[in-house]
Write a structure and sequence with these properties.
CATH architecture of the largest domain: Alpha-Beta Complex
Helix content: 40-55%
Number of domains: 2
CATH superfamily of the largest domain: 2-enoyl-CoA Hydratase, Chain A, domain 1
CATH class of the largest domain: Alpha Beta
Distance between the termini: 32 Å
Low-confidence stretches: none
CATH topology of the largest domain: 2-enoyl-CoA Hydratase, Chain A, domain 1
Number of strands: 11
Strand content: 15-25%
Mean pLDDT: 94
Number of helices: 10
Radius of gyration: 19 Å
Shape: globular
């Protein structure tokens, strides 16, 4: 796994670097499995609050490794394509994008919760140019990240969108100078990691799922999770720390 995915802990942040630069970090079986394993670790380890996912060699990810696929390798896991697209982790993931996030690489970026991109980076789902469809979440997530007509244009033409234009529509959270995507993603992840872990995880769950709920359903479905947060040790600690003008000490309980 270390050969295709570099894993580094920086305090409460798990930094994951896809490391197949010779094929622009295309996803083969080993890389998909390594990412899925890392996402399992993120969810299971109470010391970890957030992950940053990036790519080596100036490219985020060029999608599925077609040669590996032709050899019969599986590029999906229990978490879907690339180890994340179908079942992202409960904790937040920040994508740090340099260069291309193409096809399955774009879908991996869309499966992350926040996106930091360098100027000049490109996002695209060109599957229709090969008679295929972006079935790893691109067609369902892109209309949530961009205006419907623009997302449809990308899906039907297969043409990419620049990081600059994606940022103007809100698909990219932060736009930075080339070579600075990882640094800025770490700043963003650090801001997340200082907050209450239960509250962060619950906030992600509500926002990620509430788009499919009706107005009445919103209040009913979030009630149990919100009640658990309000009665948690962390909620009391947060209020106490505020009153005492000190940094909270989170326990995740």
């Amino acid at each position: 796994m270390e050969d295709v995915l570099t894993v580094e802990r920086r305090d409460r942040i798990l930094v994951l670097t896809m490391s197949r630069p010779q094929v622009r970090n295309a996803i083969d079986q080993a890389l998909a499995s390594a990412i899925a394993f890392a996402m399992d670790e993120l969810d299971a380890d109470d010391e970890l609050a957030v992950a940053v996912l990036t790519g080596a060699g100036g490219t985020f990810c060029s999608g599925m490794d077609l040669k590996a696929f032709a050899r019969g390798e599986r590029v999906t896991t229990h978490r879907g394509f690339g180890g994340i697209t179908q079942r992202p982790p409960e904790k937040p993931v920040v994508a740090a994008v340099e260069g291309w996030a193409l096809a399955g690489g774009c879908e991996i970026a869309l499966a992350c919760d926040l996106v930091v991109a360098a100027q000049g980076a490109q996002f695209g789902i060109p599957e229709v140019k090969r008679g295929l469809v972006a079935a790893a979440g691109g067609l369902s997530r892109l209309p949530l990240a961009l205006p419907y007509q623009l997302a449809m244009e990308l899906a039907l033409t297969g043409e990419p969108i620049s990081a600059e234009r994606a940022h103007s529509f809100g698909m990219v959270n932060r736009l930075v100078q080339p070579g600075r995507a990882l640094d800025e993603a770490l700043v963003l992840a650090g801001a997340i990691a200082t907050n209450g872990p239960l509250a962060v995880r619950t906030s992600k769950w509500i926002m990620a799922t509430a788009t499919g709920w009706g107005d009445d359903e919103i209040w009913e479905r979030q009630q149990a999770k919100v009640a658990a947060i309000m009665t948690s040790h962390d909620a009391t600690e947060g209020a106490t720390a505020f009153a005492e003008k000190r940094t909270p000490h989170w326990t995740g309980r």
